[in-house]
Amino acid sequence: MLSQLVAIQQNGGIAADTYTLGGVVEALEQRMAQELGKEAAVFMPTGTLGNHLAIRRLCGLKPRAIVQEQSHLYNDTGDCVQQLSGIHMVPLGQGEAFFTMSELEAAVTRSDTGRVSNSVGA
C-alpha cells in the first residue's frame, strides 16, 4: 500500500505533505476556506477531535463544560476531554436529548459558588 502511494506521489498524482503542512491537506484547507468565505480552515481527521478542540478552546482556563448527558462527546470519546485537556464534563438532561435552562443555570451556579469555585467555560 505504501509503495502504491509513493508511486502515485512520484508520478504527480498527489503532493506530499509533512504533518499537514503543504500537500493535499493544505490544498483541502485552502479550498474549504475559499468555499466557506473564510480566511483559513483547519482539517480535523475526526469529528471527535474537532469536538474536543472546540470544547478546549471555548473553556480556556475554566475547568468545566456543560454537555448533554446523551451526547456523543460525553458517552463515546473515552474521557479524552478530561484526560487530555483537564476539562470535566458536567452532564445535564439525564435520559433526555436536551436539558432545560433551569438545569443549566443551576449547574453554573453550583460550579461558581461551591466550596471550591470551578467555573464553567463551555
Oligomer: single chain
Mean pLDDT: 90
Which term fits the overall shape?
Answer: elongated
Structural class estimated from helices and strands: mainly alpha
The low-pLDDT segments are: none
Order of helices and strands: HHHEHHEH
The tally of strands reads 2
- Give the radius of gyration: 20 Å
Tally of distinct domains: 2
Biggest beta sheet attributes: 2 strands, parallel
In the sheet with the most strands, the strands line up as 1-2
Helical segment count? 6
Beta-strand fraction estimate: 5-15%
Element layout with pairings:
Layout: H1 2-10, H2 23-36, H3 47-59, E1 64-68, H4 72-75, H5 80-85, E2 88-92, H6 101-113
Parallel strand pairs: 1-2
Question: Which keywords apply here?
Answer:
6 helices; mainly alpha; elongated; single chain
What does this entry look like structurally?
The chain has helices spanning 2-10, 23-36, 47-59, 72-75, 80-85, 101-113, and strands spanning 64-68, 88-92. The protein has a two-stranded parallel ribbon. The mean pLDDT is 90. It is mostly helical.
Quick overview:
This protein has six helices and two strands, in the order αααβααβα. It is mostly helical and 122 residues long. The protein has two domains: 2-36, no CATH class; 47-113, no CATH class.
